[in-house]
Structure formats: C-alpha cells, structure tokens
What does this fold into?
Amino acid sequence: MSMRIVIAKPGLDGHDRGAKVIARALRDAGHEVIYTGLRRKPSEIVRVVMDEDAVAVGLSTLSGAHNVLIPKVCEELISNNMGDVIVFAGGIIPESDREYLYSLGVRAIFGPGTKTSSIIDFLETISERRDSKLDVGVGEKTGWRWS
Amino acid sequence: MVLNLEQNISLAKHGNRRELARLLSIIESGKKLPVEESNQSWVLGVTGPPGVGKSTLIGVMIEEWVRRGEKVAVLAIDPSSPKSGGALLGDRMRMTSADNGESVFIRSLATRNHPGGLMPFLNPMINLLSYCGWTRIIIETVGSGQSEIRIVAFANRIMLVDGPDRGDIIQAEKAGIIELADIIVINKSDLPNADNAANSIKKSLEYSDKNNDIIVMQTSSINNNGISELIEKLDNLNVNNERNLLRVKERLISAWDHKLLSNPSLDEILLDLQSGEINLDEALQNL
It folds into this structure.
C-alpha cells in the first residue's frame, strides 16, 4: 500500500544523512516521500503535512531538542484537526525520553542501527491499523506503539 | 462521500487548506469533482534542465507575487520510480519561504506511471485551484522529454529556465520546448557567462520569424536580481495565438495518448500485432 509521507528535519540540526537514507528507502518501498529539507519550524512541518495531504510524518532529530520540537509538532497537528496523521521519530533520542514522546501520540521511535526494513514494516502495520480503524494517529488513543 | 463533495469544495473555496489538499488527492485518485471548467485560470508552466534553479526561482517569484497581493499555488511535479512506483519529492525544500502565510499553497505530485502521465488530473486540479481563488497557478516540471512538454502545455503561459554555461537550451530546441515558450530565463545571472548564454539564445531566436517575440532575460534568485522585472513581464504577457494553438495541440495529443493507453482491448491488440495476425491499420480500426 503506497502512502504519502513527509520526512522532516525540525529545528537547528544540520545532520540530514539519516533523513535522506530513510527518504530513499521509503521511495524504494513504493511510497511517495516529501522531504522538507533542513531547519524547519514545527509550524512549517505541520503546514507541509497539511498541504501535501500526507498520511504520516517522520521527524528526524539529532540535536537533543526532541523533547521540545516533537511535542510542538504533535500539538499543532491536533489543534489543526489533523489527529489522524501518524507521527514517528528517529535520530538520537535516549531511551529515558521515549515514554514521554509515546504518551503524546508518537507511534514509533527509531534509533541508530535501525534497519530500513523495520521502518517499512512499521508503515505496513500502520496502514493495516488505519484500514481496520484501530488507533494509530497522533490525536487518537495512545497505547499502541511499534516495538 | 459524493453528497459531501460540494460542501468540501465550498470549504476549500473559503480558505480551508486541508479540504483543498484532500480534494486534490481525490482528483489524483481518479474521481471527478463538480467544478466547472474555467478558461480564466492564470497558469504558468515552468520547465528546464535539472539543476538550473527552477524551484529556487519559483520560491522568490512567490514572495514577489505575494507582496503584490496575489495568491500563488504551485504544482511541483517529479517522476515516480518506474521500478518501485515510489517517488522522492524535494522541490518544496527549495521554496521554504512559502511555508508561511495564507497566500501560498504548494503541492508535490508524482507522475505515478499513469498511462499517459498526469494528464487526466492536471486540468481538474487547475480548475479547482482557480475556483478556490488562487490567482497565480504554477506547474513545475523538469524539462527533459516529451512527457514534460505535454505537462507544461497545460499551462497558458510557459517559461523556460536555463543556467549560464550549460548549452542545454540546444537540447530544449531539439525537444521542441522553445516553440512553446513565451519567456526564456537565464537563472544564476550572478555567475560568469550568463551574459553570453542570454546573448547566444537571443541570436538563435533571431534566425526564426516565428520565435522573435520570445522574451529573453536574466535572473538571480540569491540576490533577487531581475525578479520584479520578471514578474512584471509575466503579468503583462501577451499570449501569442500561434503558440497557444501549439499548446492546445499538445494537450489534445496527450488526451488522445491517455485514451489509447487506457483502452481495455489494448493488450489484446498488441498481442495480435506482435503475432502478425493484424497489421497496424487494422489495429487502429479495432481501437
């Protein structure tokens, strides 16, 4: 199932190798990937997701500001009536910070060493969950997460 | 669903971006929307070789148009991978100034390997955007082949972009894009050789009576040179009738292609042709 997915780099973080590798892997898996480029504000990312009618957004952050930037994206998606959008994250996000992000509606966090195939599996799973009307969007009931 | 569409369209017309984005997806999925055909749309096709700065140039043009009170919508088209069917859509990362404010809307589109390309969707998308009050609609595509020419032919004004020192314009000439273009822009005029490139294009246009009203100019997106002149020229462009006819012809051909490629008995006829059971004339008859 092909999806439209935004891959975004929030905040002041110049490391985009990971994001680009992911973008390419998702394209090769048959998805349409919209890459935002570096140093985007949370509000800009939400805007891109809206205009592009994307199903999911992947946030790549290696700057350490994930606990500020990711919540802002989640909140703005919900306040813009886009709670059905799926949010996942990647980069350098310590284990101890992850529970908080999951509680905001983030459905998967991929750290260093992740195989691109597991991100593709994750996308297949969320696509199935959407089709079966199970909670998976950022504004829907939290609890389910990729593991 | 069908009952709600009119309501969705009305919401989109009144500035609801999410509805507009969704309606574009609905068009892309092949559904028809109850929006009337408009011949009042202002549509600019932008094409040119990869790497000449088309997206960046469009980014600064958007800013200038917004300053002048226009509402600008961009359809940025990139090819889908023929192997996986996926696509990497990165044009909008060069138009970052456009992700704020209500007067800009950018949508990335993949060609999706549809028979005959994006053709069946472009007109409905343009009609919808125009109906929803977007006064400047831009279609951007990499100009490297016949299918891209067909895409820009859906615009009623065409701008060809090239860089200094490239000589790709000769390729464009071969592909027949020049005959469709109203304006040729040498971008990156801050680099050496832009003058030479512009002059050699002007010279080559002089040889033909048909193309001598094509505007040739230089711009630089990084220092904003020539941008407001470019906007001025585009806003006051006289659409040349002869070129318009060529564009209409391209549109007709692409509609015809689409019809041919989506004919249900196409595969059967191809096999018959291959085995020699029928000849080309008979194949045309059967289609």
Remarks:
- The radius of gyration of chain B is 20 Å.
- Chain B touches chain A through 27 residues (CB under 8 Å).
- The first strand of chain B starts at residue 43 and ends at 48.
